[in-house]
Design brief:
- This protein is α/β, with parallel strands linked by helices and 170 residues long.
- The protein has 5 helices and 5 strands.
- It has a single domain, classed as 3-Layer(aba) Sandwich (Rossmann fold), CATH 3.40.50.
- Helices cover 45% and strands 25% of the residues.
- It has a 5-stranded mixed sheet.
Length: 170
C-alpha cells in the first residue's frame, strides 16, 4: 500500500512538473552589449569573452531554474547580425521585437553591462512582451571587480532574485 501511495505521489509530482514546464513562456535572449566610457581598450578582448560567457550563463540559468523556455536564436542569426552591425541590440528601437516575432517567442530579453570603471560595473536586463513591446521586467545587479567571477556572480544573483521574487514568465 505504501509503495502504491509513493508511486501515485511521484506520478502526481511528475505531472505537475510537466504542466509547469509546458506553461513556461518562451523567450529570446539576445547577446549582451556594453556601455564602456572608461576609454580603456587594452582589455577589450577579455571583455567580449565575458559578455559571451554571461550570455550563455544567463540562457542556461533561465532554463535550469524554469523561469523561461529559452529559444534558440540560430534561425534568426542573419537578422540579428544585421541589426548588430548598425546598433546595440539593447537600444535598437524595436528591432528586438522583430527578432522575437520571427522566432515566435512570447518574450525578448535585451542585456548590457555598464562599465563605470574597472571596479564598478552593473549588469542590466530588460524583458519585453514580444507582441506589445511592453516592458515586463527590468533588473540590474551592481558588481565590484572586472573579473570572470564577479560577472558570473552578477548573473547568478539576477536569476536567483527572479526565482525568490517569483518573476519567471513576466
Amino acid at each position: 500500500m505504501r509503495l502504491l501511495q509513493g508511486v501515485v505521489g511521484l506520478l502526481g509530482l511528475l505531472a505537475f512538473n510537466s504542466a509547469s514546464a509546458a506553461e513556461l513562456k518562451t523567450i529570446v535572449v539576445l547577446d549582451f552589449g556594453i556601455i564602456d566610457d572608461t576609454g580603456e581598450t587594452a582589455k577589450e578582448e577579455a571583455q567580449q569573452k565575458r559578455l559571451t560567457m554571461i550570455g550563455e550563463q544567463l540562457r542556461r540559468e533561465l532554463e535550469e531554474k524554469k523561469l523561461y523556455d529559452v529559444i534558440d536564436n540560430e534561425p534568426a542569426k542573419e537578422m540579428i547580425e544585421g541589426y548588430k552591425a548598425g546598433q546595440n541590440l539593447y537600444a535598437c528601437n524595436g528591432c528586438e521585437l522583430e527578432v522575437a516575432r520571427k522566432l515566435n517567442a512570447d518574450r525578448v530579453l535585451t542585456a548590457w553591462v555598464q562599465k563605470v570603471s574597472n571596479l564598478i560595473l552593473n549588469i542590466n536586463i530588460e524583458i519585453k512582451d514580444a507582441k506589445t513591446g511592453e516592458v515586463t521586467l527590468k533588473k540590474s545587479a551592481d558588481i565590484r571587480g572586472n573579473t570572470d567571477e564577479s560577472w558570473s556572480r552578477g548573473i547568478s544573483y539576477l536569476t536567483r532574485d527572479m526565482v525568490e521574487k517569483k518573476q519567471g514568465g513576466r
